[in-house]
Design a protein that fits this description.
With about 160 residues, the chain is of the alpha/beta class. The protein is about 20% helix and about 10% strand.
Length: about 160
């Protein structure tokens, strides 16, 4: 084998088309840019321009907003907490808080707190300190002999 005998595989490289090199090349004159005018020029082209008519994106009404006061809770089911207790990741003798759930891997990160939901089997006698809890979760924890302390107190509704 010699260095002067090395070739690419057939079809591995494609020859680039040279545009604007006369009508015989097939892409001469306006070089594949269509007619003349703004669209044939480099750089300038108005996106969404409809020839002076009010563009569609300005004809349609604005909708919705982002609520800056929205709370984002970690939703944790009691069945998932029971699994962590059984696996030894959570200590049942301590108060279960957001930080304990994050350390155990039940929650990914601390958001605005934890909302406790009542899905799954729960039998441990533990106490929770959470932001929110559903009625079924409260009933299941109290039935097992535990307690739930809610950290977020709802503001009284104004009349």
């Amino acid at each position: 084998m010699r260095l002067n005998g090395i070739n690419d595989n057939p079809g591995s490289s494609k020859k680039r088309t040279r545009i604007g090199r006369g009508i015989g090349s097939g892409s001469g004159k306006q070089a594949g840019r269509g007619g003349k005018g703004q669209t044939a020029r480099s750089g300038v082209r108005i996106k969404g321009f409809e020839g002076g008519q009010m563009p569609l994106h300005r004809r349609l009404p604005k909708r919705g907003f982002t609520n800056i006061f929205k709370t984002d809770y970690n939703e944790v089911n009691l069945g998932r907490v029971q699994q962590a207790l059984d696996a030894g990741k959570l200590d049942g003798s301590q108060v279960i808080t957001v930080d304990a759930l994050v350390a155990a891997g039940v929650c990914a990160k601390v958001r605005d707190g934890v909302k406790l939901l009542g899905q799954g089997e729960f039998s441990a006698k533990v106490s929770f300190e959470v932001a929110r809890a559903s009625r079924t979760a409260l009933a299941a924890v109290e039935k097992a002999g535990g307690s739930v302390k809610l950290l977020v107190v709802d503001a009284p509704a104004e009349a």
